[in-house]
Each structure stands twice: as C-alpha cells, then as structure tokens.
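Retry 2 of 3 after timeout on previous attempt. Resubmitting structure tokens to design endpoint.
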C-alpha cells in the first residue's frame, strides 16, 4: 500500500454533551480539546483526547434512545454496524476496581475471552466500552499467574 492508516477517533451520540464529557474526563482521563455547534446539521459536538486517541461526542437536537439490545455485548453483536470501542489496559483488575469505586456498571467480566482478559462497561447512554489486558494470556500460559473468574459479580457467563 502507498498509504498508512491509524485510529484517530470514535464518534458517539449522547443526550447531554456536558454529562458525557464529564464522564470521559472523570472515569477515563480524557481532556476536552474542541467544542462547537453545527446548527445546520442539528447538533453540538466536542472532541476529547487521551493520548493519541480522540472521542467525538455529538449532542443532536433530536435523537432516538439506544435500543435495549445494543446495551449488551452478546445481543449487540446481532445488530449490523459498529459494535463498541475497545481500550488496552495494563491492569484490568485494577481498572475494574476503579469502575466499581466510581459506580460504573461492569456489563461483562473481567473474563478470559478469546485469549484475552477483558471486560465491558457501560459508558454514557449505556454505550458498550471494552477493555482488554493482553499480557495476561502469556503470563497464564507461562504458568506465572493464575486468576479465578470473579463469580460474585456474575462474571464468566456470556
């Protein structure tokens, strides 16, 4: 190929730009880099950044709520289109504890899934956000670390 590509941003529609921006700042450490309004298109928008990655939030003047099936990983996959955003973390258990302390709902996991150690949470508007700790698989294959699935949180069932 004569070109290269890399992830730049993910667009998310929300009912409140302020509430969603605050959530991404407080829970995931994003900072706001730009905000504007496009009345002719019917929405306000904000760009938030964490490292090299950005999230574009849209607050439409008129919107439709997310269907219930889009709020669960194993149901959402049945609907055509983009599924979720995923972030890599170096300590998934620590991240899961951070979520619990901030009353962020863990929808699934942490669980071993397709060779990864992963969890899904609900972000603003109950959007699905996945987090994966990739090194866990190699550590467990090497026998240096063993982790039990946390049954008290209903984890381990898809």
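Retry 2 succeeded. Sequence:
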């Amino acid at each position: 190929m004569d070109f290269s590509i890399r992830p730049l941003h993910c667009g998310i529609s929300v009912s409140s730009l302020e509430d969603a921006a605050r959530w991404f700042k407080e829970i995931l450490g994003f900072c706001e880099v730009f905000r504007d309004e496009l009345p002719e298109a019917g929405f306000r928008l904000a760009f938030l950044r964490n490292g090299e990655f950005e999230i574009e939030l849209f607050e439409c003047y008129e919107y439709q709520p997310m269907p219930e099936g889009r709020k669960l990983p194993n149901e959402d996959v049945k609907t055509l289109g983009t599924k979720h955003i995923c972030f890599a973390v170096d300590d998934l258990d620590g991240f899961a504890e951070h979520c619990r302390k901030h009353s962020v709902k863990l929808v699934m996991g942490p669980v071993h899934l397709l060779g990864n150690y992963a969890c899904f949470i609900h972000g603003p508007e109950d959007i699905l956000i996945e987090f994966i700790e990739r090194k866990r698989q190699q550590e467990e294959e090497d026998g240096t670390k063993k982790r039990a699935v946390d049954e008290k949180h209903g984890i381990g069932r898809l």
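Attempt log closed. The helical segments are 17-28, 73-76, 92-101, 135-141.
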